[in-house]
Design brief:
The complex is a heterodimer of chains A (110) and B (114). Chain A is mainly β and 110 residues long. Chain A is built from no helices and eleven strands. Chain A is 0% helix and 59% strand. Chain B has 114 residues and is an all-beta fold. The chains are: A mainly beta (110), B mainly beta (114).
Chain lengths: 110, 114
């Protein structure tokens, strides 16, 4: 099945810093989503982005499907951005299920 | 819409007992997914339904686990008998259809088997 690798596994930053999270996947996809799991365990949808670029406030994401990676950018980090960020993909021509990466744990210190 | 609704939010049970987790998908969504999250294995798909029909249950760990979707607005995941290694957070998610559409997750059920 498709493999999803996220980097870095852990990231610790000061409030106000910018960050880039990466998601690599091993095969072509028809669905890619970024989620934020907050400290209460809730999975929050950030982006549905199988290709192209999207922005939502301080967050933006870019997926380059032909090169099999996606990037999540967080600008001017706030403590509320802390949590685990997951990338999940659905393989094109494959099983219709989201396969999750292991996540990036982001800690924003005040 | 209230989103995907799961119940209970927390469940503590003794080994050997039957556990039933419940899920109400977003109205109009045709696909429903059950995931399990553990520290060791991360988020893994257990089973998914399309139009109330189970499509892929290859992730169900063993016969102690079963899932049903009797109608478009309700699904259950049952564990009988439960074991301590079943302790995890169980998520339900729904999407308009499997593939090509965005999936939305419920708040999860934290199961502890003692």
């Amino acid at each position: 099945g498709i493999q999803v690798e996220q980097s870095p596994p852990d990231l610790i930053l000061q409030e106000g810093a910018n960050s880039t999270l990466r998601c690599n996947f091993s095969d072509s996809v028809n669905n890619l989503q970024w989620f934020h799991q907050n400290p209460w365990g809730q999975l929050i949808n950030l982006f549905y982005i199988p290709s192209g670029t999207k922005q939502n406030g301080r967050l933006s994401a870019t997926t380059v499907a032909t090169e099999r990676y996606s990037l999540l950018y967080i600008s001017s980090s706030q403590t509320t951005d802390s949590g685990v960020y997951f990338c999940a993909v659905e393989q094109d021509q494959g099983a219709q299920k989201l396969v999750f990466g292991q996540g990036t744990r982001l800690t924003i210190n005040p | 819409d209230a989103g995907v609704i799961q119940s209970p939010r927390h469940e503590v049970t003794e080994m050997g007992q039957e556990v039933t987790l419940r899920c109400k998908p977003i109205s109009g969504h045709n696909s429903l997914f059950w995931y399990r999250q553990t520290m060791m294995r991360g988020l893994e798909l257990l089973i998914y339904f399309n139009n109330n029909v189970p499509i892929d249950d290859s992730g169900m760990p063993e016969d102690r686990f079963s899932a049903k979707m009797p109608n478009a607005s309700f699904s259950t995941l049952k564990i009988q008998p439960s074991e301590p290694r079943d302790s995890a957070v169980y998520f339900c998610a729904s999407s308009l259809e499997a593939g090509y559409t965005e999936a939305f997750f419920g708040q999860g059920t934290r199961l502890t088997v003692v």
